[in-house]
């Protein structure tokens, strides 16, 4: 990945930190602009071999059969107590060959966890550091034949394109590093460069939380609305943590939920910062935060008590917090329904 870092620097990019990049014109581009974004905060863990599907079926909340090369379902990996170790998107890129797209900080910890069980199966796990992930946001002629439905994918022998939800059309493109510069050049002919923050704000607007290593083992899947996004199959067989996850759903025991909010001030709060009500009682925490391009506030994902009313006065670090509506209904989205409605596979 060193060569890719050099390429981003040659394009005027600068690392904001170890995983996020920014470009000189970022501040002048609104969130509804069309853009090309390096998705350096995401990465791929590969599961490959004759037993890959069977192995994943026993570890993940998705029904692996739904990952059919057309639908790329969301999923989680849990502890025996049902807490999320990592959330991911599951892509079938070839027979007996799967990619998990997840936050880069969780690839190594998840691999270490899964390696405990891998020796009992005919399959291998590998961090695909040779892949580059790009984000395409907005209208572009290049995307004319790409999937038009969220969580659907198209692929060829080398690259994969997956549609993600958001206020603008957007796609994640994963391809070998040695092909990335050519694809980058083709895309920049139509799209302006933008930093990782643009993609992260689109995730916030979509009510989509990609957990980091700092969040690992903190939430039940329902606390990040994963069942409302179709990321939990309640009809498949057992997987690690399944009993707790199912009990929380059927008994209605989820007391905290993911929400969208806006915070006064242009400095993002530290992840995990406490949300307090008018009586200074802690009622939740910040899950993700990005500065609004207007510079007048911050866009947030929060995990907050379900007992708190939407219009209740709230604050973080003494700054006013205003809640916003989720872009999807807070009810179970049946992944079996999604699978049945999958678009025909695309070449």
Give me the secondary-structure topology.
Elements: H1 2-10, E1 14-15, E2 21-22, E3 35-38, E4 42-48, H2 52-57, E5 74-78, E6 84-94, E7 97-103, H3 107-114, E8 124-127, E9 131-137, E10 153-155, E11 160-164, E12 170-176, H4 177-188, E13 192-193, H5 196-205, H6 242-250, E14 256-264, E15 274-277, E16 282-291, E17 297-305, E18 314-316, E19 319-324, H7 335-340
Parallel strand pairs: 3-13
Antiparallel strand pairs: 1-2, 3-9, 4-7, 4-8, 5-6, 6-7, 9-12, 10-11, 11-12, 14-17, 14-19, 15-16, 15-18, 16-17, 18-19
Structure description:
With 347 residues, the protein is α+β, with helices and mostly antiparallel strands. The chain folds into 2 domains: 2-209, 2-Layer Sandwich (Gyrase A, domain 2), CATH 3.30.1360; 255-326, Elongation Factor Tu (Ef-tu), domain 3, CATH 2.40.30. The chain is built from 7 helices and 19 strands. The strands form 4 sheets. The chain has a 6-stranded mixed sheet with strand order 10-11-12-9-3-13. A hairpin with a 5-residue loop joins strand 11 (160-164) and strand 12 (170-176). The longest helix is centred in the middle third of the chain and has 12 residues, at 177-188. The chain is globular. It starts with a helix and ends in a 7-residue tail after the last helix.
Quick summary of this structure?
The protein is α+β, with helices and mostly antiparallel strands. The strands form four sheets. It has a six-stranded mixed beta sheet with strand order 10-11-12-9-3-13. A six-stranded antiparallel barrel has the order 14-17-16-15-18-19. A five-stranded antiparallel beta sheet has the order 5-6-7-4-8.
